[in-house]
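Re: Re: token formats

Sure, here are both.
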Amino acid sequence: MAGASPSCARPTTRASSSSSRARWRAAAAERGAVRSIEEWRQAPRAERLARLALTGDELARAIAGQDASRLARRPDPVNWASVEVLCHLRDTEESFLHRFRLILIMDEPRFPTTNPNRWAMERQYLRNDSAQALEAFVRRRAETLAFLRELSDEQWARAGVQMDSRGRRTLDDFLAVMAWHDPNHVDQLSRALEGRV
């Protein structure tokens, strides 16, 4: 595993070229797994919140009855194992909620770029227990949903600035990102269990 840097940014591809992204989107759309962030942005807020509420159960069904060795098996040297996907979702959920709270108390806070692959290595995702990672994700997601459901229309328009190419995002924008992010990683986790990238 030394030197391996599994891919997270686009769960089904290793390449970052436009043609690779287009092929990935087409394949994902064919599977029915993916809406674009823009499509989620256009969806009613209630639908986006409902999408977020499904993820914990989807993950639980996907890993039910799987042994630890299968959950820790990468489909190739570059893509994540299922346990790494679970840990990524757990840690990203914590990061999202932290950022959301900052957005409410500060004027357009700036957020540093995160490196999910570095998190996976430094936090030793492959050594984590899948059930515990899922439990933590479910708990954090419940906190996030409770927080988001209490926001006023004015609060949904508040924003933070990601210090990378993503730039300024409102809380409403973040909700679209999360609604896009979840099914991508649920699909990635399922494919990893099948030994597919």
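Second one below.
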Amino acid sequence: MGMKAWIYAMVAVYKRNLKILRRQKQLLVTPFILPIVVLILVSTIMGGSDSWSIGLIDKSNTGASHELINSLESVHSELAPYFNVIETNPDKAKNAVEEGRLHMTVTIPEDFQNTNKVYTDTYNINTDMMKNVNFRLEHGLLKEMDDRGDLQIETNLLTEKSYAVPRSAFFAGSAFLLSLMLSATIVAANLFSFDRENRTRKEILLTPVGIHAAGYGITLASGTVAILASLPSLLLGIFAYQLNPQHLLQVYLIMIPVIIMCATLGMIVAHFLKRFHILQPIIIITFFGTFFAAGGFAGVSMLPPIARGFSSFWPFSYIFEWLNPLLHGFNTYLSPLQYVLLILIGLLGVLLIPYVYRRELKGNISGGQ
């Protein structure tokens, strides 16, 4: 068979797969919805901004207490104010802290003007988040002391960097990358499994074109869906989560070999797991865990030692580590070695597809079935 006929066959399978996906809309729910759910979930849990929610109770109601309140409300980073005061009622603030709905309550007592003491109540004193809240409070108190001329030793705290991005923007960038990888993997797995369960491979076997042309058609369809599925996450990140994507076209181009490899991995998973109801939860949990434990939720350098060790050999972790800096404008390009590795990954994905189909045919097509 000539190359032209083989390409026609691959494109025909590609078009057929798109029609299948339009008819079987349940196959598109996860790629389009899960990254958005992850983004909303993580930004809700972690605040999604650089401001920590606190309660601020002023029992003194004096000029000195008002100055302290102004200092706490005005202290800020490059991104946003340190604190978002959302509760001033003592009882409601106490209950909110106990229930974990507030990070901290700061109480200015009645004798503040004489004692210069404030009292705090926190939900959990041991987490890194609470240490960060306490640091911010100390920064605010030092600012107030400096404004009053009571600070004998001036501290120069480096709390701002011009290139800093909001936490919500980092989450949005990771969700965008997640959508590309997840969509390519799960759509390819679903289409591969659909072919098996509906025995459409027999139709292709009757043609003079190799069966692995179906695999390349699946890869093309998965890549198309991955790009389309990434758009809702990208737009949500831009308009709701302060994402300001840089080098977006370059990121999409770099992701092409990754998408090819993800599609191949999806077919491999479908080859071994066989059924929709088995393979879909495993793929979802894998990528969900990858986001939180391998560089999507936070940079690998910020993860616990066990997670850092896991990320060192987990390939999807490198996608977050390499492309998030590019997406946020920290870097303008990858290193030559990284480009070479990505190209090799894409080539490996292409070369593995015929092997997957040979194994599939050997194990499943026998006795006329």
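DSSP finds 14 helices and four strands in the chain. Residues 167-198 form the longest helix (32 residues).
- S.
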